[in-house]
Design a protein that fits this description.
By secondary structure, the chain is an alpha+beta fold. The chain is built from three helices and six strands. A six-stranded antiparallel beta sheet has the order 2-1-5-4-3-6. It starts with 6 loop residues before the first helix and ends with a strand.
């Protein structure tokens, strides 16, 4: 199974499956945050989804590990603000994953890499592997209105994370390469 090598993502998917599913997906209003497994919390992001354009509209919660890696994504922040700052292919990739999630109403696993350039020959370039599980949630209706995203990030070699992935700095190109996106049962 694809999640066996990542206990955080496996725990997240198992937790999502255990939630009551009154409309064939869990309802965020029935989520008791006290029941979220501790190993998931630092890697958790809860966002509202805008069904009209499969965009993400607002972060409701950002876990501490995600905030450390991305450094500037507080609760209530509008992720669309990054749209103008990040590569259009990356934004399109994320929107495609969200669109598939909304359509299928099942969790989706994806793996991708960020390549960060060398820092003035002092720090080597680094590759950060991101593994994510996107899980759909309703919000009092039948449509997917919220998304629980659980993400783990690992830097290559002897580079210690967290590294600043977003927001990109002027003149610094952070490359993103999608490796796979797999719907989960």
């Amino acid at each position: 199974m694809i999640l066996e090598g990542n206990p955080v993502l496996k725990a997240a998917r198992d937790f999502w499956r255990s939630l009551p599913q009154p409309v064939n997906i869990p309802d965020i209003r029935l989520l008791d945050v006290a029941t979220i497994p501790r190993e998931i919390l630092p890697h958790l992001v809860i966002v509202e989804a805008t069904n009209a354009n499969f965009d993400l509209s607002r972060c409701r919660l950002v876990g501490s590990e995600i905030a450390r890696w991305f450094r500037a994504m507080p609760e209530g922040m509008d992720p669309r603000a990054y749209g103008a700052l990040t590569d259009p292919d990356y934004i399109r990739y994320m929107r495609d994953v969200v669109a598939e999630l909304i359509q299928r109403r099942k969790p989706i696993y994806c793996r991708s890499v960020y390549t960060l350039p060398a820092d003035d020959a002092v720090a080597p370039s680094a590759i950060v592997t991101a593994e994510r599980v996107f899980m759909p949630m309703a919000d009092g209706a039948t449509a997917v209105e919220c998304i629980i995203l659980v993400e783990t990030l690992h830097a290559s070699g002897d580079v210690e994370g967290p590294l600043q992935i977003l927001p990109p700095q002027r003149g610094i190109a952070v490359r993103h390469d999608a490796i796979e996106a797999v719907p989960l049962a």
